[in-house]
Design a protein that fits this description.
Elements: E1 3-6, E2 9-16, E3 21-25, H1 39-42, E4 47-51, H2 68-81, E5 87-92, H3 94-105, E6 110-116, H4 127-142, H5 145-156, H6 163-172, H7 178-188, E7 204-209, H8 216-223, E8 229-234, H9 241-244, H10 246-261
Parallel strand pairs: 3-4, 3-5, 5-6, 6-7, 7-8
Antiparallel strand pairs: 1-2, 2-4
Helix pairs in contact: 2-3, 5-6
């Protein structure tokens, strides 16, 4: 099982296939396992690297404060460790936040960016926002991981035919380290890079489930602030779009990557521009 070390932390990753490199970054309380409907499909055509962020999965869970900048630095270190050219990065939820952070800190490492059900900031801007964040912070500390997993399973996959997906969440969530889980949640609350989005000039795809926690309008607003971005809304999907609509998600991602990888016409009076 491959590991690499960065900032005193052993981080687990998987590396499959050959071709253009694509890097998958999971969300809060998740791991590489949550890309199970993407990995077999994606590595048929390209090199796919997936990582367990610090505090998650099979990576170390250091007893320290976590930050989005540190998560992004870990991902940057993995890209450099593997000597990869600029990568296509796909991040869901907190993994999308890591993608945003990497995009503003190290834009030269990205060929493209795909953000799934995420945002470039998690900041309270109203009384309702303060209440929602305070409630989430408090309940995460008061409730057991088993109880959180059961509630999350019902929230993400409420349909009768989604019983197998609910069971996956209920089984996987208690496997988290509670202290690392809370440290990761603390890294999210109050974080933001929205004022720096102009630095992300590579092609960017934002994917939103039509029934995600945050409304589509919120994604439309920040997509308009990105220099080279577009939004795709996937219907009948909540927060875990790669799991509840895997075929549609994979098709949308394939189409985006094909467009990015299409050779661009060269002009005699211009040098090729990196994204």
């Amino acid at each position: 099982m491959p590991y690499f070390e960065h900032a005193g932390c052993q981080l687990y990753y998987e590396d499959h296939g050959q071709g253009e490199p694509l890097l998958l970054v999971h969300g809060l309380g998740s791991s590489i396992q949550d890309w199970e409907y993407q990995l077999p499909h994606l590595h048929q055509q390209r090199r796919v690297v997936a990582v367990d962020l610090r505090g998650h999965g099979r990576s170390d869970k250091p007893r320290e404060r976590y930050s989005m900048a540190a998560f992004a630095a870990d991902v940057a270190a993995l890209i450099e460790q593997l000597d990869l050219p600029p990568v296509h990065l796909v991040g869901i939820s907190m993994g999308g936040m890591v993608g945003f952070q990497l995009g503003v800190d190290r834009p030269e490492l990205l060929r493209s960016l795909c953000i799934v059900n995420s945002a470039p900031e998690v900041k309270a801007k109203s009384a309702a926002d303060w209440w929602m964040l305070a409630k989430r912070w408090s309940l995460s500390r008061l409730l057991s991981l088993q109880t959180i997993g059961k509630g999350l399973g019902r929230l993400l996959f409420p349909l009768p035919e989604q019983a197998e997906l609910r069971a996956k969440v209920e089984q996987r969530w208690p496997q988290n380290d509670k202290r690392a889980y809370l440290a990761s949640l603390d890294a999210i609350i109050g974080w933001g890079v929205r004022e720096r989005l102009a630095a992300i000039t590579c092609p960017t795809l934002v994917i939103s489930g039509d029934r995600d926690y945050t409304p589509v309008a919120a994604k439309q607003a920040y997509v308009a602030e990105l220099p080279n971005a577009r939004l795709v809304v996937i219907e009948r999907s909540r927060h875990a779009t790669p799991m509840d609509q895997p075929d549609r998600f994979n098709a949308v991602l394939d189409d985006f990557l094909a467009q990015v990888e299409q050779p661009q016409p060269q002009h005699d009076n211009k040098d090729p521009q990196p994204c």
